[in-house]
Design brief:
The structure is a single chain. The chain has about 170 residues and is mainly beta. The chain is built from no helices and 20 strands. Strand 12 (about 95-100) and strand 13 (about 105) form a beta hairpin.
């Protein structure tokens, strides 16, 4: 068992009746610090989870767990300075991201925000010409966050010009 030390690299010495070993690069032991200096992007995702979150900081190489609130995420790639994590499902709201390695856990002040997915309940008019160009009023809930996401599509992958009227209405051009 290694003795309690502060973060950093120490040499391993063995002492016998014949003397003490000489230090060298092959006989060192590194004490890892708890993860620190944690930052992450993006700062928000969907309540459904599955968002790829990039975490940067120090002491990340030997990460044993990343939690969003109290729920573990899935670490998919890691180096000493960067982790890629897939967010778990979580209810709407803001939660801290906590990174843990064998030496301890990070203390993160920033919060990851879980946004509820919007719900579309209708559009008026419900049909228009093939050439597009018609204004459609879309009704539903959770539209206020459309500015920070991918916006409005009438055909996935084809963005439409739009204006958010309020959390329940959007004016878009089909």
């Amino acid at each position: 068992t290694s003795p309690l030390e502060s973060a950093g690299t120490d040499y391993i010495f063995v002492t016998t009746a014949g003397g003490t070993s000489s230090p060298g690069t092959a006989d060192s032991f590194t004490y890892d610090a708890a993860p620190n200096g944690i930052q992450f992007t993006p700062s928000a995702g969907t309540t459904l989870g599955g968002d790829t979150v990039t975490i940067t900081g120090n002491g990340l190489l030997d990460t044993t767990q990343v939690k969003f609130g109290n729920t573990p995420g899935t670490v998919t790639l890691g180096t000493d300075g960067q982790l890629t994590v897939v967010s778990p499902q979580y209810s709407a709201g803001s939660v801290p991201i906590k990174v843990t390695n064998e030496s301890g856990s990070s203390t993160t002040v920033a919060q990851f925000t879980y946004d509820k997915a919007p719900t579309v309940t209708g559009g008026s008019p419900a049909a228009g010409p093939l050439g597009g160009g018609i204004n459609v009023i879309i009704t539903g809930t959770g539209f206020a966050d459309a500015l920070t996401s991918t916006g409005v599509d009438f055909n996935p992958g084809t963005s439409a010009a739009y204006t958010i009227i309020n959390d329940n209405s959007i004016s878009a051009t089909a």
